[in-house]
Fold this protein.
Amino acid sequence: MLLNLERLEFLIAQYVSGSLPEPAHVLIGSHLEMQASAARLARVLETMSGEALEDSRPLPVSSRERRLAEIFMSPPLPSESWPAIPERSRFPVALRAYVGTDLPNIPWKTRLPGFRQHIIRKSKEVEASLLWVRPGRALPHHGHHGLELTLVLEGEFHDHRGNFDEGAVSVADETLDHRPVAGRRGPCICFSVLFAPIALSGSTLRLFGDIIGI
């Protein structure tokens, strides 16, 4: 879990600097909404960044008058229009705006017995989706060809690294092979951002059992 925490702290630093891709930015922003300790870390990093900026030496701007004229002549930026967030939304504000609807309205699609998915955005570079897993259900043992971020929205899951409950983020990459298992208190609902496909691994017998959900 220590390595996962170190990677998560690095992602929070990238969030503060504004360098994360949009779905990862939404996921980390939602994590900060759900976990006060993570939000405190983000505020510390923001303060440190501000102090570093204040202490930096200003550099002269070449062609100052021309650049100012170009700025004033440029068209105004379009105003952002965010949907109203219900007071009792089951999603964090950042995620609710990204998805465009609330949890009860998600059009789930069954991928395996006891495992449902709703793809929010998908491109060649990234797939952002919501996952619903039946209580006690294990997902097939798998590895990763790249980075996968998973934020637990409701319920919990565990693997050999430990337990991930509401608000926790699992950071997985090429170094991780695991078999996530949903907790038994209720369904495990997650927001997943996948930057590369997963690869099934482990014994054929165990994979078969996990795929059919026994």
About this structure: The helical segments are 2-17, 22-34, 36-55, 64-73, 93-99, 204-212. The longest helix spans residues 36-55.
